[in-house]
From TrEMBL:
Cu cation binds at residues 164, 168, 256. Copper metallochaperone essential for the synthesis and maturation of cytochrome c oxidase subunit II (MT-CO2/COX2) by facilitating the incorporation of copper into the Cu(A) site of MT-CO2/COX2. It is found in: Mitochondrion inner membrane. This is Thioredoxin domain-containing protein. Keywords: Chaperone, Copper, Disulfide bond, Membrane, Metal-binding, Mitochondrion, Mitochondrion inner membrane. InterPro entries: SCO1/SenC (IPR003782), Synth_of_cyt-c-oxidase_Sco1/2 (IPR017276), Thioredoxin-like_sf (IPR036249).
């Protein structure tokens, strides 16, 4: 219960509100009722409570007396006499708790379906604005490769430059932590890390290959290209970059957006993570996106 309160307080409050409402009517259930009437009343309470969970703002009330009034009028039309059953307090509590559990399960199922619909809506919106897309560049081994070569894999991608003094190394270390976490989780797919330079003037395939040796991210592939090719890729992912003025040693800094991108096995843009997001936060987000993607694929 503590976990529900701290991680999903809105769910706990809704469940508590439903259960409190059930509990308030517990004493209204008589200890001796007709077996037929008891079954009819219980069914009435279940149906109205489920209807209430689906209809936000509804004034439906699942109290026992309203159901008893309805079922009593129906029972009076039947002249057969029924036996009575003695229902102890714990029996009534069990019935009410079961109905409450049914309402909670219905609410959870509806909420989960809504999350999947929202995820599908995200994909459609990204497609409308053409965020992301395919590209072809030169990898750190000097081979011409395309993003389509990585179809079927989850890609986690970072754009930077090898002469970056501090920020890029920090983000590359974060990238390695994320990738290794997924590698060590048997129930999660392996991620394909990719580094794309925003400084093609200095970052040749050989320079990038040497740069990647400083990081522990497995399977990472670095890419470079012409200035126009890099600009085109950056444009697809809405990444800004600009070369700063050269100093007396002919050195310069490249100012750029600090973003880690997530791309699904179909090559579709899924999400991005700024520098402020920790590795743990990114791992949790990526895991949720993967789970939702798998469920959407089964629809």
């Amino acid at each position: 219960m503590i976990k529900i309160m701290t991680t999903r307080p809105h769910i706990f409050l809704k469940f508590h509100r439903h259960f409190s409402h059930f509990r308030s009517h517990l004493d209204l259930i008589p200890k001796q009722v007709s077996l037929r009437q008891f079954c009819s009343n219980s069914r009435c309470m279940l149906l109205t409570s489920i209807n209430k969970s689906w209809s936000s703002g509804s004034n439906n009330s699942y109290n026992y007396r309203s159901c008893q009034k309805y079922t009593t009028s129906s029972e009076n039309s039947n002249k057969k006499s029924d036996g009575t059953v003695n229902i102890p307090w714990w029996g009534r509590l069990l019935i009410v708790s079961s109905i409450g559990a049914g309402v909670y399960y219905t609410y959870k199922s509806a909420e989960h379906e809504k999350e999947l619909d929202n995820e599908l809506y995200r994909y459609k919106e990204f497609e409308k604005i053409n965020l992301g897309g395919d590209w072809t560049l030169i990898d750190h081994n000097g081979n011409k490769r395309s993003s389509t070569d990585f179809r079927g894999q989850w890609i986690i991608m970072y754009m930077g430059f090898t002469h970056c003094p501090d920020i890029c190394p920090e983000e590359m270390e974060k990238l390695g932590t994320i990738v290794k976490t997924f590698d060590n989780s048997p129930h999660l797919p392996k991620l394909q890390p990719i580094f794309i330079t925003l400084d093609p003037e200095r970052d040749t395939p050989a320079v990038i290959k040497d740069y990647l040796k400083d990081f522990t991210s497995p399977r990472i592939v670095g890419f470079t290209g012409t200035e126009e090719e890099i600009k085109e890729v950056a444009k697809k992912f809405r990444a800004y970059f600009g070369k700063g003025p050269k100093d007396q040693d002919n050195d310069y800094i490249v100012d750029h957006t600090i973003i880690i991108y997530l791309i699904n096995p179909k090559g579709e843009f899924v999400n991005y993570y700024s520098r402020s997001r920790t590795a743990t936060e990114v791992i949790q987000s990526v895991t949720k996106h993967i789970e939702k993607y798998n469920e959407l694929e089964k629809r």
